[in-house]
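User: Predict the full complex structure for these chains.
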Amino acid sequence: MVALQTRRAAPPVHRRRRSPDTVRQRRAGVLFSAPAVLVILLFLVAPMLMALWVSLLHWDGQSNPFSGSARFVGGANYSELLGHDGLLRRDFATSVRNTLYYVLLDVPLVTVLSFGLALVVNQRILRGRGFFRTVFYFPSITSSVAIGVTFLFLFQGGGAVNAILSLVGVQGPSWFTDSRGLVQIVLAGTGLVDPGHLPGWLAAQGMGLSVWDWLAGPSVAMCAIIALTVWSSSGTFMLFFLSGLQNIPVQVEEAALVDGASTWQRFRGVTLPLMRRSTVLVVTLALIGSWQVFDQVYVMSQGSPGKTTLTPAYLSYTTSFGDGNFGGGAAIAFVLFAIIVLFTAVQRWFGRERS
Amino acid sequence: MKALIAAGAAAVLLLAGCGSGYDSAKSDGGSDKPITIMFGSSGEAETGAVKAAAAAWQKRTGHQVRVVPAQNLTQQLTQGFAGGTPPDIFYTDPTMLQQYADGGSLYPYGDQLPKSTVDDFYPALRQAYTYQGKLYCAPKDLNTHALVINTDMWKAAGLTEKDYPKTWADLTKVATRLTTKDHVGLTVGGDHNTVGSFMLAAGGWFVNEDNTKVTANSPANLAALKYLQGNVQRKVFATPKSLDAQNPGEAFGKGKAAMDVDGGWVEGQLKSDYPNVHWTAVELPAGPKGRGTTVFSNCWGIAAKSPNKKLAVDLVKSLVAPGQQKAFMNAFGVIPSRQSLGTWAKQTDPKLTAVVDGVEYARGTVSIPGFTSVLADFDTQLEKLFTGGTSPQAALDTLQRNGDDAVKQK
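Assistant: Here is the predicted structure of the two-chain assembly.
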C-alpha cells in the first residue's frame, strides 16, 4: 500500500514512458514464459485445486468427482480426521508423531553430513576431487526403490549390519520387528517405567494416543529408514553447500589468514556466517522432504512394525486406495500441506537475516 | 491470483470433460473397441496362460482382446473407474467386492451364466461373491489355509502319519515335540488372515453371515487368540517375523519351523526357492467348533461402464469353462473354482489335496469397505499381542471399535 501511494504522489514528469521496444520485450517475455506457466497451471495448480475439491466430497474413487455424482460433504472429511475419536485420527496422530521424530533426527543429521561432505570435496589440496564428488552424489541419482530393497537386506536380523555389530560383541536388534520406540526401549530397559502399569500422566490420552505413545521416540525400523534418507539425500544437499562454499570470495579467506585466524576460527567466523543462506535452504528442503516420505515406506515396511513407520503421505495413499475413502485421503494431504507451511514459516523465522 | 484461479478452474473443467467421454457411449451390445482384460499376474506363466485363453476366444468370435498385466491392480482399476474408462474384464476379490458394487462399478452378471455353471462353483465361493442377493462375479480359482508339514523333521521327531493333528490339542502336542533348538514347531503368519482361520475353527469370525455387523469381541475369537498367544509364549509357535522371515513360507522353507499354516501358494514358493524341502500338507486341525479355514480367491469382474458387456460375459463364460480352468491349473497351479473339477485337481496335484478339501467348510474374506485399514490395524494389534504388548481381549476390543466405525460410515 505504501509503495502504491508514493508512486501516485510522484510528479507525472518522472513517469517512464514505454518505448515500443520495451513493449515488444515484454511481449516476448510473456510469450517465452507462457509454456512453463501453462504446464505449471495444468499439472500443478489444477490438480491441487481438484484435490482440494475432492477433500470436500464423499468420493469412492469410482466416478467422475466433477460430475456431481459424489456427495458434497463440506468439512466433514476434516472433522472426521481431526475431531472424531476413531481409527483414522489415531492413525493420523501416529503418522504425525513418527514424522516429528523423523524430522528431529533427519534434518540435523543430513545438514551436518552434507555440510561436512561439501567441506571435504571443496578442499583444493584434495586429490581426485571429481571422483569424490561423483561418489558422494551417486546415492541421489539411484532409484529410491533399489536403495530401499538394499537397506532391507542390510538390516535383516541376520543381515550385514548385525553381522558387523556382532563382531564388536553387540547383539543387534531385529530391526523391522520391534514396534517400540527408542525412548520406550530405554525407559523400560532401565526399569524407570513399567509399560504394563503406566503412571497416570503417561497413560493420559491426546488425539487417540497416550502420552507414553507420543513420547515413544522413533522405532529401530524408523531409524533404519532415517539412515537411508540421510545417506541418499546428502549428495544433493552437498551440492547446495558446495556452490555456497565456492561463492565465498577467496580474498575474505585470505584476509582472515593474514589476520592470523586458526582453521577453526576461520570456519567459525568466516565460513559459517557466509553459509547462512545455503544452510537455510538445505534445512528448509530437508524439512519439507521429511513430511513427504512415501516411497521408502511403501517399499520397505508399509508402516510396520506397529505403525511406527507410518507417514502422513503413506496414510493418505492407503486411506484413498485401500479403503476407497478418497475424500479422507485428500483431507490428509491438505492438513499435511498446512503442517509443512507452518513448520517452514517457523523455521524461516528462526533462520531470517538479523541486522 | 484471480486469473490463476480462473485458469485452474478452466483446466479442471477441461479435464473433467475428457474424463466423462464414456458416459454417453453405448451401454451394451456392440462397440468395435477391443475387450480389455486387466489382471495382477503372478509371473510369466500366468500372463502367458491368460493371453492364450484370450487368443482362443478371439479366434472363435473374431472380436479383438487386449490383455494387460497390471503393476498395481487396485490403483490402476481405480484410475480406470474414476476416468470412466475401466478395463472391461479384471481380476478382483471379495475384499473389494462391496466397495466396487456400492460404487456402481461392478456389473452383476451372475444371472447370465448358465445355472449349471453357477451351481458348479463351490458354495463358499458363491457366497463370497454374492452381495445383496446378486452374484456379481464368477470365481476363477480358490485357495485355502492348510497345515504344511516338513516331513523330514516330522520323521526325525519320531512321528508318523497317524500323528497328523486332528484337534488343537494335538497341534500343541506335535508342535511341542517338533520344537528343537534349531527350529520351532509351527510358524503362523501373525496377521488377520491366519488368525482368522483359527477364529473360524473356534466358531467365531470378524463379521456376521452377511457382512453387516462386526462380531470381533466374541468369546470364540478370544479363545482363538488365547490359544495362539499361549503357544507363542511357550515358544512352540512363532510368527515369521520373529524367525526373521518375510512370510511363513520363507520361515518354513529355511527350516526355521517344522510346520506352517499356509495357503496352496506355498507350493510355488517352495518349488522355486527351497526345492530341497520335503513336505506334505494336511487339513487344519479342528478347533472347539470343528474344522475351519479361510478361502481366498479371485474372480472375473466386469465393469458396469464397459461398452461391451455382452461380449465380456461371453468371454468370461469361456474363461471359467472346465477345459480352460484345467489349462490354468496346468500352467500356473491355481485350483479350479468348480466342484466337478475337485477330484481332477487332487489327482493333478496330490500335494494340494488338503487345500481343495478345505473349501467344503471354508469361509471367504471380509468384504466391508473401509475394512482394509481396520484389518491393518488389527495386524498391528496382533504384532503387539505376540510380542507381549497387549492382551487378546484388548486387541479384539480395538478391532470391534474400529470395525463398528467402518460399518457406520458405509
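Residues 124 and 401 of chain B are 28 Å apart (CA to CA).
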